[in-house]
Amino acid sequence: MFTLDIAPVWDKIKHIQSSCEEAMKLKEPGLVPYDPVRDIEVLHAKKHPPKKGFSTAEGQARMLHDLANIELQAMELGLRTLVEFPNAPQGFKEELLAVTVNEAEHLAMCLEGIDKLGFKWGDWPIHNGLWMATSREDNILDRILIVHRYLEGSGLDAGDTLIRRLEGTEGKHTIQKIVKQINFEEIGHVDFGSRWYREICSSKDIDPSEDFPARMDSLRTRLPKRIEPLNHVLRRKAGFTEAEIRYYEELRLDFLKPALESQKN
Length: 265
Hints:
- By secondary structure, the chain is an all-alpha fold.
- The protein has a single domain, classed as Ferritin.
- It has helices spanning 9-24, 57-84, 90-116, 129-132, 140-166, 175-203, 208-219, 232-237, 242-264.
- The model has no long low-confidence stretch (mean pLDDT 93).
């Protein structure tokens, strides 16, 4: 069962509340598709066409298009977790429903911004990299670390960079406003993951300070490689400990090593 398997993106937004409410009623885990349905072209990120700078309307629209794709996957991943983990704590599921609906609101903001710039959803290809980072074999702690603490945590870093890059452009008072609102609200989404990661660890008599690095080590090979500088201030607001931030700094350096070594040669 996966009730959000509706192709047009606006239909997915329209049905997200009812889809999540239906998922909340599940008694047994439901199956999800290998890939969610898309109404536009899907390509690996490495095959996407070059991007124009933020000084152009096209560059700003392309950025919002990329952000819309991320919000779409975040929305779907929220529903996926509700479908696959019906026995998760009720408080967790209720908060996740609210987070998922908020992701849909972010997606709508991005799509409306693209339209205002004179472009449309589907003018560029998208990828399903966030969705593919998750697995049917995940347990609830895996899923929280992958989606809410790694993927969305990385989004905090990227969002802060986008906000700074939009300074001095014509999008400062329009497009930047969208990115700022999304980035601010994403802090709460990541904090949701931080709180529930520790809460569920506690319920299972697991020490999160030991579990976090060990679990991340086991998951890191299938995660998208994020090399954006970490925003320590936003990460702390979102519930990351200093030890967790250090772990991500070391992980970022590991991801950067191939590029640094190629520069030396």
